[in-house]
Specification:
Layout (H helix, E strand, L loop, with lengths): L2 H5 L7 E7 L3 H12 L4 E4 L8 H4 L20 H6 L9 H14 L6 E2 L4 E7 L4 E6 L4 E9 L22 E3 L14 E5 L3 H13 L2 E6 L5 E3 L7 H9 L1 H9 L20 H15 L15 H18 L3 H7 L11 E3 L2 H4 L5 E5 L5 E5 L2 E4 L2 E4 L2 E4 L8 H4 L2 E3 L6 H4 L18 E3 L12 H22 L4 E3 L1 H16 L28 H13 L5 E3 L1
Helix pairs in contact: 2-15, 10-11, 15-17
Bound molecules: NADP nicotinamide-adenine-dinucleotide phosphate.
Length: 541
């Protein structure tokens, strides 16, 4: 695979160097990187525009909870200098505008086929080629296949009896219509209380005549304290944007070097010290709450102090004690992804908003006019599923991906995702997954993890070209050791201790395995070391 050969096979013709599935932030940067290295690449995207998760998640209140100066690409100095964010936390339309700006600036769309859903991929061992099929029956071929399909892109729509019978409109937050949805004067139901619900509920409540929220598990949320972006802060960051990005990459979650993480233990701070620290973080707003002490996600007792603090806040914010009690979670804080809100708990003080506990029996059935839960009949005009995603593996497993000897990925991952570094799967040569399970991915600023993976994949492909190698595949024993390592690291944290989507616990029947790897800097170092050791743990041909 030489750049000169690549030039003789222009994109759009028979064999590409790379096929990239997905035109979100991962796919777009992979395309930039492929071109920079002189490879031909074709991106296949289901949606009709770039943006990935920000193209699909258009629900009211959708917004990123990583600060906007960090939730953006760092690969191009001119790009990061010229783009201006309006708020501390960017709203979805602005992030989508940013994605479109990047696509235009780097002329990406000429190599992206929109409206093309990939349904199959088969590795041809004799020719070292991936044959990729779309839903419409088109076939594509490439030497390398890169899955840039996102971690949270397959909607989880629960299979509740009577689903089809509801007479009014139904929505899923992750598949929101492109035209405006107006709930004015309507009785609306929301099922779910994760991040998407926490963001949309306060906005839906402003429009709806009646809002009923069906809660299976109460959620911890911290205030966003969103505000217009501070111009002086922006100027300081932009004066040394590269340094700022580098400092963030040294943080455990790849973001928040500005948050003054306190390394001390919550156990040693004393009651007053803890209260002061948590209060200060609550006032600042955002995910920095867990940086109040160094052991909140590492030690159950430290975590319990933080959890109790949030529960006290909920009791203070919600006037009705029974509702406050129902909204108070019992699992460790941040064990399920911590939510960031603007007026979530306060919304339950409104007279037309009610909370229904479905933790015991769930929803029995959907009816033409509403639903039945706890033997009670509820009526409404519109139904919103804020029920999340089949995370990390769902999108990959919905495609029929077959490696050497026709091995199906679904078969290989029957007992949970097996791969090396979250990047490659033994038995599936020349197939890369950007932010795959087994990498830090969803426990970090996604764009930091995406850029790290794209750099690694790009360097690997360039190295293979220089070495005259045509095939790379994870080694089965390196893979087994890696999955063991992920479990061991996760086991040292509070993360595996509740029914989260990190574990696949939100999808009935999904294998319970902790999928992301905590700790970005150590992971990045490991990836560099593997590359420096001529791709140790991989088999090259
Ligand atoms: P989620 O966190 O998985 O929340 C789904 C909610 O639906 C949970 O409350 C869940 O209850 C409930 N649910 C699922 N199936 C149900 C069923 N059959 N019956 C009743 N309730 C059910 O999904 P999400 O809110 O879409 O968020 C997913 C992730 O996307 C977030 O954790 C975050 O990483 C990302 N996200 C980020 C932002 C942001 O940047 N601000 C915004 C939105 C999403 P259980 O807890 O009991 O399972």
């Amino acid at each position: 695979m030489h750049a000169r050969q690549a030039a003789a096979r222009p994109s759009g013709k028979a064999v590409h160097d790379l096929l990239i599935v997905g035109a979100g932030f991962a796919g777009m940067y992979m395309l930039v990187k492929a071109r920079e290295l002189g490879f031909t690449a074709q991106v296949l995207e289901t949606g009709m525009d770039v943006g990935g998760t920000w193209y699909w998640n258009r629900y009211p209140g959708a917004r990123c909870d990583i600060e906007s100066l960090e939730y953006s690409y760092g690969f191009d100095e001119a790009l990061q200098q010229e783009w201006k964010w309006s708020e501390r936390f960017a709203p979805q339309p602005e992030i989508l505008d940013y994605a479109r700006h990047v696509a235009q600036r780097f002329d990406l769309k000429r190599d992206i086929r929109f409206g093309t859903r990939v349904v199959s991929a088969r590795f041809d061992e004799a020719a070292n080629l991936w044959h990729v099929g779309s839903e419409a029956g088109e076939l594509f071929q490439a030497r390398f296949l890169v899955m840039a399909t996102g971690c949270l892109s397959s909607a989880n729509l629960p299979a509740i009896a009577g689903m089809e019978s509801f007479a009014g409109p139904t929505y899923h937050t992750g598949r929101w219509p492109h035209e405006p949805v107006d709930f004015t004067g309507q009785r609306v139901a929301v099922i779910g209380t994760g991040s998407s619900a926490v963001q949309s509920i306060p906005i839906i409540a402003r429009q709806a005549r009646e809002l009923t929220v069906f809660q299976r598990t109460a959620t911890y949320s911290v205030p966003a304290r969103n505000a217009p972006l501070d111009a002086a802060y922006e100027a300081r960051v932009k004066a040394d944007y590269r340094g700022f990005r580098a400092r963030n990459e040294r943080m455990p979650a790849g973001f928040g070097s500005n948050l003054n993480a306190n390394p001390a233990s919550a156990l040693e701070a004393g009651a007053e010290g803890r209260e002061r620290a948590f209060e200060e973080r609550w006032r600042q707003g955002g995910l920095g709450f867990t940086r109040a002490f160094g052991d909140i996600v590492l030690n159950a007792e430290a975590n319990a102090y933080a959890a109790a603090f949030v529960r006290r806040k909920i009791s203070a914010l919600v006037r009705d004690p029974a509702t406050a009690a129902l909204l108070s979670p019992s699992q460790p804080v941040a064990c399920k992804r911590l939510c960031v809100d603007s007026g979530y708990y306060e919304t339950f003080n409104l007279p037309h908003v009610r909370l229904v506990d479905i933790s015991q029996g769930g929803i029995e059935r959907i009816t033409p006019h509403g639903l039945v839960a706890g033997a009670q009949d509820y009526s409404f005009d519109a139904l919103v599923f804020a029920t999340g995603f089949d995370a990390m593996t769902g999108t990959l497993l919905r495609m029929d991906i077959r490696g050497r000897g026709g091995l199906a990925l679904g078969e290989k991952w029957r007992a949970g995702p097996l791969n090396y570094l979250g990047l490659m799967v033994a038995g599936f040569p020349n197939l890369f997954t950007i932010t795959g399970p087994g990498s830090p991915s969803v426990l970090t600023n996604m764009i930091v993890s995406i850029e790290q993976h794209v750099r690694w994949i790009g360097a690997c492909l360039a190295w293979m070209r220089a070495q005259g190698r045509r095939r790379i595949e994870a080694n089965a024993s390196a893979e087994r050791a890696w999955v063991g390592h992920v479990n061991e690291v996760a086991g040292q944290t509070i993360f595996p201790g509740c029914n989260s989507w990190y574990l696949g616990a939100n999808v009935p029947g999904k294998v319970r395995v902790f999928m992301p790897l905590p700790g970005f800097p150590a992971y990045d170092e490991k990836c560099r070391a593997v590359a420096a050791a001529a791709y140790e743990g991989f088999e090259l041909a």
